[in-house]
């Protein structure tokens, strides 16, 4: 829309000047060759059409309206050239000025059409007056035509420069907007796991309410004695200490391609298998290896953490309202993983039988036995995940 307004405005004054020179050329030619009713009409067209074209283009306000107005320019030029018997200098001035204007506003792709339209204009005059050919022109007509070409070239050059400046300004504004959006996206990425962020911004997933069932491995952890720690530690030191711990846990999550669901105070919830899965077994192995690495890092920090892992079908997707949603997982598999974590011991990883069956070839495990967990009807066979043995 901005480009169309620019072209409509920028072509208005060059068109007026061009038609004034055309009017003067036709008038001087008539002094040597006589004038008739048809030439009076043509002179009137040269005075009225530039303003009519500007008014129509502003009303329609499209790039096509500017193009069609230039087509009419070529039609009128064809009529004028034929009317003055193709007098060399003024005809050349008419055509070259219009071609320059056409190239600046619409490039070269429509020049073939404009030439045919110019020929159509000459054909109209020939059909009315017959074909005459007198290339010589008087001194004043030739001089005026030369001046018209020079001035019009200067105007077109100025218009090209202004168009270039406008495009450079628009490019700078687009670049600034892109930079702002990039910065905004970077800030937004801090609130999403990289996998979710990438899937949304790549168009793989849409930001709408939708869910599906998928087999995942779910991990929970929390710090042992965290409530007591909050009672004795200075609030600022507590925030620094907790953020330092969570930052280490997040780095390990990324290392093993886990999807961070959320931080809940000191608790961490991660799952493997969505948005991208490397296979049910490989997802489970990655989850347990991540937990082992987290335990090792927690011990370095002097923090005791308990962890629980379970594998199975989960409902995953966007939950919430149309205006505020959260990408997360729900289901009995998630609930059992949370119960395993709360039943684990400090510094240990408690996994379900479902996870054990997936990782037992590469993770050394030890049976803890069947447990009766809160909210779970049947007893659950559980195992301690001890170390990665490869395979």
Overall SS class: alpha+beta
- Kindly provide the name of the CATH class of the largest domain: Alpha Beta
CATH fold-level assignment of the largest domain: Alpha-Beta Plaits
Q: Helical content, roughly?
A: 55-70%
Number of domains: 2
**Assembly category:** single chain
The rounded distance between the terminal residues' Cα atoms is 63 Å
Explain the overall architecture:
This protein has 391 residues and is α+β, with helices and mostly antiparallel strands. It folds into two domains: 2-173; 207-388, 2-Layer Sandwich (Alpha-Beta Plaits), CATH 3.30.70. It is 62% helix and 18% strand. The protein has twelve helices and eight strands. The protein has helices spanning 2-33, 37-60, 63-83, 88-106, 111-129, 139-189, 194-201, 226-232, 235-255, 280-300, 332-343, 353-359; strands spanning 210-223, 259-264, 267-272, 305-320, 325-330, 349-352, 363-371, 380-388. Strands 1, 2, 3, 4, 5, 6, 7 and 8 form an eight-stranded mixed sheet that branches. A hairpin with an 8-residue loop joins strand 7 and strand 8. The mean pLDDT is 84.
Would you summarize the structure shown here?
By secondary structure, the chain is of the alpha+beta class. The chain has two domains: 2-173; 207-388, Alpha-Beta Plaits (2-Layer Sandwich), CATH 3.30.70.1230.
How would you summarize the topology of this molecule?
Elements: H1 2-33, H2 37-60, H3 63-83, H4 88-106, H5 111-129, H6 139-189, H7 194-201, E1 210-223, H8 226-232, H9 235-255, E2 259-264, E3 267-272, H10 280-300, E4 305-320, E5 325-330, H11 332-343, E6 349-352, H12 353-359, E7 363-371, E8 380-388
Parallel strand pairs: 4-6
Antiparallel strand pairs: 1-3, 1-4, 2-3, 4-5, 6-8, 7-8
Helix pairs in contact: 1-2, 1-4, 1-6, 2-3, 3-4, 3-5, 4-6, 9-10
